[in-house]
Amino acid sequence: MPKKRSGGGLSPTQQAAKFLGVSVLSGAVLAGIALPAFGALGLAAKGSVESFDELPANLKTPPLSQRTTILDAEGGQIATVYSRDRTVVDLKNISPYMQKALIAIEDSRFYEHGAVDLKGMLRALNQNVQNSGVAQGGSTLTQQYVKNVFVEEAGDDPTKVAQATQQTIGRKIKELKYAIQVEEELGKKKILENYLNITFFGQQAYGVEAASQRYFSTHAKDLTLPQAALLAGIVQSPTYYDPVKDDVTATNRRNVVLKRMAEVGDISEAEAAAAQKAPLGLKVKQPKNGCITAVQGASFFCKYVERVFLSDPVFGKTKEERAKVWNQGGLTIRTTLEPQSQKSVQKSLKDHVYKSDKVAAAATLVEPGTGKILGMGQSKPYGYGKNETEYNYSVNASMGGSNYGFPTGSTFKPFVAAAALEEGRPANQSYPAPYEMPYPSTVQTCSSKPWTNEGNDKLENESESEKGPYQLKKAMELSVNTYFVQMLADIGMCPVVKMTDKLGVVQGNGDKVPEVPSSMTLGSTGLSPLTMATAYAAFASRGMYCTPVAIESITQTVGGAKKSLEVPKSTCSRAMSEKTADTVNTLLSGVTDSGTGQQAGLSGRANAGKTGTTDSRKNAWFVGYTPNLAGAVWVGSATQKVEMTNITIGGVYHSQVYGGDTPGPIWRDAMTGALKDKEAPSFNLVNIPNPPSKDGGNDNDDNDNGDDNGDTGGDDDGFLTGLLTNGTTNGGTSTNGNDGGTFFQGQSNGNGNGGGRG
Predict the structure, then answer these.
(1) What is the pLDDT of residues 34-60, one digit of tens each?
(2) Residue closest to 753 by CA, chosen among 727, 715, 716, 719
(3) Which of 319-323, 464-468, 698-702 has the lowest mean pLDDT?
(4) Could you report the per-residue pLDDT of 546-565, keeping only the tens digit for each?
(5) CB atoms < 10 A from the CB of 687, how many?
(6) Where do runs of H (alpha helix) occur along 112-263?
(7) In angstroms, rounded to a whole number, what is the distance separating the alpha carbons of residues 32 and 30?
(8) 68-71/331-335 β-pairing
(9) Are 72 and 52 in contact (CB under 8 A)?
(10) What is the DSSP letter of 412?
């Protein structure tokens, strides 16, 4: 079977006709570019170009697309991503063997002729006819380079690629004129360098450096004679001469190159003979493209970085502009991901939740005061197979997360407390907080129309022993539902709305949290772990909220020159007074010290946090922080269909899952590893006095009536079926029964009775 160029398929007779036709045209060009007799030449009638003279004079050379490297905060490589795997190198960093081999087989008179080589065309025509196939090319390296520029400019658009490679006289004429321009402007060595960087070598490798790495796991400057000959031979037809798929054909082609090198005097006959006897010596390095190859479980963070780039206007006004820059590549992106924190997150998740479990877990760590994302991971790996998922459970839908996020349960209650404190309520505020009560008949909203309890809905605490009166500290420690609903009725929902707005708290779909009591106190609305971690980080930084940020710096290489790109910056603003933040820190320190979050508590350093468990135990949370690190952990079903009762997670059986006993230990271990050998600053705690009791002494009714198992307050978040919004619960489906595949997590919108358990 005769060999064909990858875009060819012409018979020897057709090849002869083509080469003769091009030779005639080339002769015309060499005779005089502007001669009218040849300028018109009937080309318009052939549907090509009107006149050689009328072709644009300047070849637009697009920047070569290259691989992008994503680094962690310390400069370690997380992953490489690319539309075309290419690393541009200077000619001095390309083996002389490679340079000589390519010229010998593709254009042996490269340094002797101009842009067009009529003698070479005739010689190639003769050789190809004798061999009944394509043994030598008729185009000069300069012409081939121009063609590759057309292909590069076409990108991945199949129509444009077809136009760039079409076998017409018109395209050939265009190629010839641009080749003359390139010869005049660049010179031979630069053309050779550009050619070796632009051309395709098969196996997803563009350019000689990527090809050297792919086939031999070495650099282009270190290629040996046999290796260089093999790569030079591949260029003519990367698919046909692919050494990975057909080593015999590739070896024969390599030996043809070696023979030609000897014929033109680049190497001796003895060197050629020795090299022909050498084995191919492949040391194939598999392509590692995309975030799926990221180290330390950072695939989801990697995809988050990509989505930030493609969505943030700082990288281009339109999504098309941003996509063009991303696909062009050549970027070195240093991120905020801290190796120690990321390693700790992944280890903790792996230790506590198996990827084959019915539920999943996600964790995110954020630095207070800067918004830097230091760690992000989940129990189900990134991928498309069993027990894998491409959805990032830690982020909002717009950044690759679930449709709505996940109901947060009682982890929402600190926002209510912060709003009340900002409104002037005392830190020892007391409410009756009975075991069971109806929702208030009306609660003021930010509009003139108050919320009304039209269905006479009720809510209750975790156990009948939980009945007030309670003051704020104990109510927070025990997560008392009725207390916080009474607090909401007292201050109204607008202060809570204002607080959550300042803390960047939005639903997973980007919408604001609805103004209904179940959402405003008991966490019936879906949020993401990143949203919760950054909001709680504001407590740690004494009231300063900083938007999350994942990118530290970006350097782009274009045409051998490097430039820095502007990157998104975290925006920090005051969300509450220092006094309010200090008070919340005092309240939440009690949760990890003697409340529902004891199992999450850290030893040897100040820490605070809040547990959360939702209706039917479909979600469990722990969100907490130290003065220098905040983190959120969610455990649950992506489809919201698994009730975490009588369930085994990470090899541990649970009759009922609580925020304190499942996500709590994940948070504890992730934080412990992330903070190892780091400073342990203290909170600015405040003194919260007990209010006077009825008999004139201190009110000691706030007995520890709960157990330390979890959210004895009902994190019930009581509702979750969406209490009080008079809708329906729209559950989701999964293509994978283990929640590892595509999912559409339902949002809870109504018909709850407030009786959820935490």
Answers:
(1) 333 333 333 333 434 445 555 555 676
(2) 719
(3) 698-702
(4) 999 999 999 998 877 889 99
(5) 7
(6) 118-131, 141-154, 158-165, 169-186, 188-198, 208-216, 225-234, 247-263
(7) 5
(8) parallel
(9) no
(10) G
